[in-house]
Amino acid sequence: MKKILIVLLLAMTTFIFAGNDYTTQEVFNLVLDSNTLGIHGYTTQDVLNLVYDSTNEALKVTVNGGDVEVGTLNFTDATELTIATGVVTITQSVHTIDGETDADDDLVTISGGVEGDFLILYPENAARNITLINSTGNILTSNGLDYTIPDDGMVMLYHNGTDWLAFTGGSTFPMPNDTYATWVDNAGTGTVNAFKVNTSDEIDLGAPLNAGNLQLTADGETMTLADMAVSDTPAAGTDMSAGFKIDANDIFRYGTEADGSGGIQNEYAYINGAFIYGNAVTLADDAELAIKTGVAGFGQVFANDETMHFWFTSAGVLTKISGTANTDVADTDTDLCVYDAGAGISVKNRLGASYKVLIKITYMTP
């Protein structure tokens, strides 16, 4: 049998409610004190107070010890705030916000609120950009940069007693263009540039990228994995290449040389020590194309049904292995020629007309 005891002390400001089931006894005091309605537990001394703040005309709940469990937290419906010379005055926890004269605007100062308050702001109209200005008034953003509230997003702020601290949210990363996002380095003494969106709206990485598998778009057809711009600053013959290493060893590399005028020459692929050069170029009669200097290897050239296999030394000595009648390893009129031009191996069209010439050479650096 369970006994219930209720005691009302009407002459005091304390009401006692007690229940007894022979094994446990819980006693609670309902205390009225000035603007506070408090519930005190005798056994654990947890206190739940409902306090009326007459200054801000607000009812506050305070708990000393223990937890407050909330099923659903529901705020009053949002009301609109309109910025006036950078300032708004809040009246509740959730507001929509719009710019002065219904235009894009900057929010510099939020009036109202006390320490511990939370505030949610979201755009009244997605067509207008509302930007929180960091540190000029009483708003501090998470990364120290001005933050534009996303069209379909929101921003949550917390009042620390002096300023409103903004927790950025939504789908837009609040970094200005051409500025790196940075992280603290391993030593804790500096920072590492991670990535940025540059002035061409491309993503730049500021540090080596360690990655697992690289998954490309399905059915991507012809895709560009990397592109290196070449200006007229490097001297002609300067190597421009990119590649792959395994255990710090070059396995595959593709590259070219700068031509000194903002273009490239002598494209090649590198596979485990061997360079493969290929080109298909239209050469006018008596025009020539310089290949490489100081390398040794073998190759093949083809134009207008004329073809030749040859090999060469790093000193520029050429030997014809096989070929059609109008081919030679010397500069000979009416022939398709591969010869030592004194500054490296050259392919020269002397067939009497302009032809497209296909060249393939495999070489190594002695």
Structural class computed from helices and strand pairing:
mainly beta
Give the uncertain stretches in residue-range form. Answer: 1-27
Number of strands: 32
Query: Biggest sheet: strands side by side, in what order?
Result: 21-22-23-24-32-26-27-28
User: Whole-Å distance between the termini?
Assistant: 102 Å
Percentage of residues assigned to helices? under 10%
| Shape assignment | elongated
Strand content: over 45%
Global mean pLDDT: 83
Please give the largest β-sheet: 8 strands, antiparallel
Please, how many helices?
A: 0
Quick synopsis:
Among the domains are: about 5-65; about 80-165, Jelly Rolls (Sandwich); about 275-365. About 0% of the residues lie in helices and about 50% in strands. It has strands spanning about 5-10, 15-20, 25-35, 35-40, 45-55, 60-65, 80, 85-90, 95-100, 105, 110, 120-125, 130, 140, 145-150, 155-160, 165, 180-185, 190-195, 205, 240-245, 250-260, 265-270, 275-285, 290, 295-305, 305-310, 320-325, 325-330, 335-340, 345-350, 355-365.
